[in-house]
């Protein structure tokens, strides 16, 4: 009996030193995973923003070569547009900072909650250990032998049970689709905004030309009536040039409107697909 008592005490000490814990729940691993996810998300956002800005700059340069005879007013408009873009980017960065601060506050609250739960589990384990020690003092030798055999059988069976926390392949596929749709939404939204800005610029340019033409026509008629044919000829050339420029701008505007409408339809389809995949993913994760 003394021999079994010493053996039980040794086993009890060994059991107390071994605590079951999932690998992902370990504080150091959990902290590393949280930092890793945050860095990956930041890198993805930076890559997406860099790509959007690169596409905006490239499209702007391609359109700039097609615009003819830019005036001082148009250059000032370009500078104003660039300033507005920088201002919008600044607002977006401020919003991102606020979102990160909010997320940090949520993570800190979750960390406090996990600490409290760990303390409660430690207290529960200690209380159960005390109860088990008191219970073993009242058990007979035969019962101890039966308990020892049952524990061995249980441990042997536990090693044979497959255990995995990896998400199924279908859920991983849905996660990849969700990320792909999210990136597509950002890219398409940037294209739509850029097209709308260019369309607005072209409309203003066409409107300015339409405003100048009547005045030039009137000046030409006055020059002809005053037998000032040299001035009339110059005015005719300027009218012809502005008319040709207006026609080219209108054709370019039509092309941009078609592309913008196509991008808007694509954006709506991508948003619908993203919503559907997100719902399927949430349902699959909840079921898992």
UniProtKB/TrEMBL annotation:
<feature type="coiled-coil region">
    <location>
        <begin position="232"/>
        <end position="287"/>
    </location>
</feature>
<dbReference type="InterPro" id="IPR026081">
    <property type="entry name" value="DISC1"/>
</dbReference>
<protein>
    <submittedName>
        <fullName>Disrupted in schizophrenia 1 protein</fullName>
    </submittedName>
</protein>
<dbReference type="GO" id="GO:0045111">
    <property type="term" value="C:intermediate filament cytoskeleton"/>
</dbReference>
<dbReference type="GO" id="GO:0005815">
    <property type="term" value="C:microtubule organizing center"/>
</dbReference>
<keyword id="KW-0175">Coiled coil</keyword>
<feature type="coiled-coil region">
    <location>
        <begin position="83"/>
        <end position="124"/>
    </location>
</feature>
<dbReference type="GO" id="GO:0001764">
    <property type="term" value="P:neuron migration"/>
</dbReference>
<dbReference type="GO" id="GO:0005874">
    <property type="term" value="C:microtubule"/>
</dbReference>
<dbReference type="GO" id="GO:0060271">
    <property type="term" value="P:cilium assembly"/>
</dbReference>
